[in-house]
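Hi all, long-time lurker, first post. I run a small reading group and we've been trying to get comfortable going from sequence to structure in the token notation. Rather than ask abstract questions, I figured I'd post a concrete chain and ask someone more experienced to write out its structure so we can walk through it together at our next meeting. Sequence below, copied exactly:
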Amino acid sequence: MSVKLSADEMRYIALFEGLTGASVCDCLVDDKGKKITFIVRPGDIGMAIGKGGNRIKKAKQMVGKSIDVIEYSEDPAEFVKNIFTPAKVVGVNVVEREGRKVAIVEVDSSDKGLAIGRGGQNIQRAKILALRHHNIHDLSLT
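-- Answer (accepted) --
Happy to help. Here is the structure in token form:
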């Protein structure tokens, strides 16, 4: 993985790792600067969130932004599923279309809105992260 991080993203990673002890492998700040998404190493999600969510709450207070934590996975389908948590993902199928990887994500019908997010922000974030980490060029929700 060769992700280019901004100076701000590197500062957020250093702060988050210092607060939580979790190892962060990527950080994404949304366009409006209101939400930070951290990708943590497999097995570090519990450490990042903390007992009763105390670590993530403290991090939110310190940065003054909403924070999401996603667990990385070497398995592209598992990683895409993790991106959409807490939406209930029924299945993920990664296929090749015209020489490009595409993930078809089946989401429980009651969680479609949650998976898409307000103004499509969750699906946009999912597309960026899937491309950065697994070279998946598009996501399709079913």
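A couple of things your group might point at:
The beta strands are 24-29, 35-40, 66-71, 89-97, 100-107, 136-141.
Residues 7-20 form the longest helix (14 residues).
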